[in-house]
Design goal:
Number of helices: 12
CATH architecture of the largest domain: Alpha-Beta Barrel
CATH superfamily of the largest domain: Alanine racemase
CATH class of the largest domain: Alpha Beta
Strand content: 15-25%
Oligomer: single chain
CATH topology of the largest domain: TIM Barrel
Number of domains: 2
Distance between the termini: 56 Å
Length: 422
């Protein structure tokens, strides 16, 4: 469910007409719904509320604007970060260090130091060399770093190859077959405190069976490590639950069903439970609004040429991803749909959002909205073709605010520096 609905013939974001936002801010523009963000967070929180000690850490790589982080943090969410920049954003949004989990395969010593200075719930360790570096940095500071070790369970998440993270050929984690050995190494390092186990098998999962298999392996590993004398009190079970990008498709499993699988597979262990959803919290909480520049008649097809481009929403070009695209003005009942290739103005054939997509008739100057664009949209945007990053807007009830402004051309151009010797 989301809060982008037609009302009186016009698409609204909660109680605000989307066209009103477009007039005030310009297009293209990302628009987020606070009510949808909070609803999805609370669904996850309730799904694991059976665990006396639990934390939903929002995977902020999905959408990292500080306004979104503050909204979720104030509701009780922790944060899952994968860089120093994300860590600093979370802290700037008011999230305390003891609710921030630091993941990622390439943590540098400076990033580790920053997190230890500012406070951290845990580092999710991905390799033996990283484990040694964390210990060295912590020891040099006279502190002990809390860690989990990310294990790779060699489970096929049955998702897109570029967002699968739990198979043996992926770069993430240590092989679960070597976990006992690596935990023994960690226990011998002076700057580390083992607090648990971490696992994450991928993103946009629409089947609970891979989760079940991975968590069953984690439960077995927990028993083994406890028998070896390790204190395993926390299980970080990752995220990855998918969203329905196509309204015609069957809905993926719900957070409630996901929470039930967690309880069935690891609930008996008495551990703290952490999960790190991102896409399902943010995905359907955002839309990308674009204006139609031209309708172009080709040899055998019509093109809708929008002012949004692949640099604003890279997912269709990078992943072949589908986004439902709808007119901002509700089409009349019974109107005949027609196929369009929906494209942007960037000078690449890859700047294509959809081919032969059936749409109501669209004219130049009419607005369209990309649904389910709240996750991995704005955060993956670039200034390719020297197109300014587009603004982000947050709606709550009948009010809206720009939470990231569109830079001017002068601001964009003046970031460059020409050497004196040129």
């Amino acid at each position: 469910m989301d809060h982008f609905l037609y009302r009186d013939g016009a698409l609204h974001a909660e109680d605000v007409p989307v066209a009103e936002i477009a007039r005030a801010v310009g297009t293209p523009v990302y628009v987020y719904s606070a009510a949808t963000l909070l609803r999805h967070y609370h669904l996850f929180d309730e799904a694991i509320s059976w665990a006396d000690d639990h934390l939903v850490c929002y995977a902020m790589k999905a959408a990292s604007n500080q306004a979104i982080l503050k909204l979720l943090g104030d509701a009780g969410a922790g944060m899952d970060v994968v860089s120093e920049g994300e860590y600093r954003r979370a802290k700037a949004a008011g999230v305390s260090g003891d609710k921030i989990v630091f993941a990622g395969v390439g943590k540098k010593p400076g990033e580790i130091r920053t997190a230890l200075e500012g406070g951290i719930r845990q580092f999710n360790v991905e390799s033996e060399p990283e484990m040694q570096v964390i210990s060295d940095v912590a020891t040099s500071m006279g502190v002990v770093a809390p860690i989990t070790i990310r294990v790779n369970p060699d489970v096929d998440a049955k998702t897109h190859e570029k967002i699968a993270t739990g198979k043996s050929e992926n770069k993430f984690g240590i092989p679960i077959s070597r976990a006992v050995e690596v935990y023994a190494m960690a226990a011998a390092l002076p700057g580390l405190q083992i607090v648990g186990i971490d696992v994450h098998i991928g993103s946009q999962l629409v089947d609970l069976d891979p989760f079940r298999l991975a968590y069953r392996k984690v439960a077995e590993l927990t028993d083994t490590l406890r028998a070896e004398g390790h204190e395993i009190r926390r299980l970080d079970l990752g995220g990855g639950l998918g969203i329905p990008y196509e309204k015609s498709n069957l809905a993926p499993p719900s957070p409630t069903d996901y929470g039930a699988v967690i309880r069935q597979e690891v609930g008996h262990l008495g551990c703290e439970i952490e999960i790190e959803p991102g896409r399902l919290i943010a995905g359907n909480a955002g839309i990308l609004v674009a204006d139609t520049i031209y309708v172009k008649q080709g040899e055998d097809r019509q093109f809708l040429i929008l002012d949004a481009a692949m640099n604003d929403l890279i997912r269709p070009s990078m992943y072949g991803a589908h986004h439902d695209i709808v007119p901002v003005i509700e089409p009349a009942a019974g109107v005949d749909y027609q196929p369009y290739d929906i494209v942007g103005p960037v000078c690449e054939s890859g700047d294509t959002f959809a081919k032969q997509r059936n749409m109501p008739p669209v004219k130049a100057g009419e607005l369209v909205a990309f649904r389910s664009a709240g996750a991995y949209g704005a955060v993956m945007a670039s200034e390719y073709n020297s197109r300014p990053l587009i603004p982000e807007v947050l709606v709550q009830g009948d009010q809206f605010a720009v939470i990231r402004a569109r830079p001017t051309f002068d601001e964009m151009v003046n970031r460059d520096t020409i050497p004196e010797w040129l």
